[in-house]
Design brief:
single chain; 128 residues; mainly beta; seven-stranded mixed sheet; four-stranded antiparallel sheet; 43% strand
């Protein structure tokens, strides 16, 4: 099992910002960064949904609900994946998961089943 460790979750008021981080070992990150990495979230009583993905070349894709507010990025020196979340809304409250694909796919998508490595999740709570 590949260790993906999320951090940066917490409680914030609506309109605020948080930055989530997803770290793994250098060796593992250098391998995974060539493929798709992304963030998913699961709100209480709902299914897990894709939030943002980034491919090996740095191209990104976002769920419509977070476009313009969230930014996914990679730091290849720090071996870390980030999710910058601005203008947070109550409906962004969820457990956020870091995920990665370990093999080549033609294009990265927000489809959960395509990701085979997952972190344990970090809670984000937005109060209105």
């Amino acid at each position: 099992q590949v260790p993906l460790v999320e951090s940066g979750g917490g409680s914030v008021q609506a309109g605020g910002s948080l930055r989530l981080s997803c770290a793994t070992s250098g060796h593992t990150y250098r391998y995974l960064r060539r493929y798709c990495m992304g963030w998913f979230r699961q709100a209480p009583g709902k299914e897990r949904e894709g939030v943002a993905v980034i491919d090996g070349g740095g191209d990104t894709s976002y769920a419509d609900s977070v476009k313009g507010r969230f930014t996914i990025s990679k730091d290849n020196v720090k071996n870390t994946l980030f999710l910058q979340m601005n203008s947070l809304k109550f409906e962004d409250t969820a457990v956020y998961y870091c995920a990665a694909v370990s093999t080549y796919v033609p294009s990265c998508s927000l489809v959960e089943s395509e990701f085979n490595y997952w972190g344990q999740g970090t809670q984000v709570t937005v109060s209105s």
